[in-house]
Amino acid sequence: MNVVFLIGNGFDLNLGLRTAFSQFVKEYCHPLQHDSKVITKFKETIDKDKNSWGDAEREFGRTTKSFIEQGCNANDFYECYDDFCFQLSRYLQSQEKRINFDKQSSKALSGFSSAINISKILKPYTEVQRNSLLEAINHIPGQFEYSFIDFNYTGTLDACFNLLQSNSAVLGKRTFGGVAHQNTIGQLIHVHGTTTSNMVLGVNDESQIEGIDLFRGYGPEYIAQLIKVQTNEMNEENSDSKAASLIQSGDLIYIYGMSLGETDKLWWDRILLRMIQNPLVHVIIHCHKAPSRALIARPYVTWETEKKASFISNLHSEIDEPTSAALRARIHFDTNNIFATMKGLEVSELSPDEVIDALVGV
Asked: Which of 112, 240, 279, 360 is the S-S candidate for 232 at Cβ 3.0 to 4.6 Å?
């Protein structure tokens, strides 16, 4: 049985790293001696609207329009975009170094292997939801194989994944049909690249580029750099197709630490199509903010209904009500933090000067 985790920035934030775009742009806006005039102006623009730049990918799609209005061209835009990406990679490298996984390998291995344990994941659910999940799971033979699609640039998930690869026995066994199967580790794919290579930062499609005319008259790579799936094609590492194949083979899909935003709409569509194609596939979405259902269920049920409808709206094609109802029954929300135990890892602090040095490249 294939268990596929989609891991977003919430994973690093849970560890105590300051890796959100909103945290980075506060540092990025500091002027540097080598900044050009266009980059200086770009930083000033971000500084005036830091809250919006918490979703930097969507803002890059929007800001194309302002570049046109300011009389700038595509090369001006990419001078700023490239600078942003280079500084982001340096900033994130400084953040990921705050955790020494070698010195805390035992604690990291224990916390990570426990977090992805299916029994632990299902435990907090209501009896009805747990039975629904178990009914599907119990129809799928073999061991649990855990794979990961990493939407982060950092190597924190890689460190945990590598520990599991070297100590796969901690994943335990699954008994199916009277036979004990050793659970295994599958693949980890950085679908948006890393801090050192093939960085993908942009929008879902052309409709999210408000100033598309900025790139008219330039080569196709200018638009491709800003549309994620096209950037992956340009990077020629097949990371998009490899990750799509994982989705296509997934039996249980768990989404953790992701906002379900429109710049990743392609992935939500792919997951929903997988669910339509295979009625045994269930999806669990971690949400760290949700109404409590401990005493009164109604507020939670209202919230859950709205969340399910919003997720299903990511489908690019129309579906009838029976299909929609079938999807809703197999979408579950986890309001518990499965990686909570990993908050116990030691995280060193960086001084303000060290953060600036990272951006300057010292």
From this structure: 240
